[in-house]
Amino acid sequence: MTVSRSEQAPRLSDQDLATVMSLLRGADSVELKLTVPTSEHRATIASLGLDPVEAQPRQVFFFDTPDLALERAGLVVRARRIQGGRGDTVVKLRPVVPEELPADIRRSTSFKVEVDVIPGGFVCSGSMKGGSSGQEIRDAVAGSFPLRKLFSKAQKAFYATHAPAGIEIDSLVPLGPTFILKAVFTPRQLGRRFVTEMWLYPDGSRVLELSTKCLPREAFQVAAEARSYLADRGVALGGAQQTKTKTAMAYFKAELEAEAAKKPVQGA
């Protein structure tokens, strides 16, 4: 299949490419991502031979202040419930410059620096990861389990370093859940694992993301091979890109604002 100029995905500028190459030298991994236009979801699932029945269900909760103070500071606090009772947590900071991170943070086995690349854009993030159970996450969202106990000592220290002053973890409000269907496939032509995630938001909107991870030194070759593979299967490469987290945060911020507007004003 030949991709026309109008369908071509946006490309990084020469300056952006230079920045990405600099970031790759200090990163642990790269994740190449593509979101597919809503009108192309059904065709993409069919062309890639995905079986929705085999997808793994997940629930994601973000935690922030009602006005998203953490998001403005570049901090993401997330908990994820996974089918089978499992769960995990992350405290993520973005953007980061790998060389500017403290040595003790870089030595932590729970910390990872990753460059996310989408058509026409990129971001480098540092993530402190932790484990939890699905039930603990559920209880924390319900208010019967302290939110801070979902996170490890290292995660809480990382949070305290980067969160705006005066915002404690236990004061954060849950944003969610967002329901997710995750499927994994490995094309024979590439021999590389791809992940498909469908994020389903409460208002009925959805985001379909395709992604694959690789080592920094492999990034440009893997990107070219993945692009060719997807184009050959008719996957739309030129659509506007939506990041899953930003879409979720924007939705739940609007929901919080709508709820606040319904409350009577004291003294009125």
Offer a few descriptive terms:
single chain, alpha+beta, nine-stranded mixed beta barrel, 8 helices, disordered N terminus
Please specify the SSE layout and strand pairing.
Layout: H1 14-24, E1 29-36, H2 41-47, E2 56-64, H3 69-72, E3 75-82, E4 86-93, H4 103-107, E5 111-118, E6 121-133, H5 134-142, H6 153-162, E7 173-185, E8 194-200, E9 206-214, H7 219-232, H8 244-262
Parallel strand pairs: 1-5
Antiparallel strand pairs: 1-9, 2-3, 2-7, 3-4, 4-6, 5-6, 7-8, 8-9
Structural notes for this entry:
This protein is of the alpha+beta class and 268 residues long. It has one domain (5-259): Beta Barrel (Hypothetical Protein Pfu-838710-001), CATH 2.40.320.10. Helices cover 29% and strands 31% of the residues. It contains 8 helices and 9 strands. The chain has helices spanning 14-24, 41-47, 69-72, 103-107, 134-142, 153-162, 219-232, 244-262; strands at 29-36, 56-64, 75-82, 86-93, 111-118, 121-133, 173-185, 194-200, 206-214. It has a 9-stranded mixed β-barrel, surrounded by 5 helices. Strand 7 (173-185) and strand 8 (194-200) form a beta hairpin. The longest helix is centred in the C-terminal third of the chain and has 19 residues, at 244-262. The radius of gyration is 20 Å and the shape is globular. Residues 1-7 have low confidence and may be disordered.
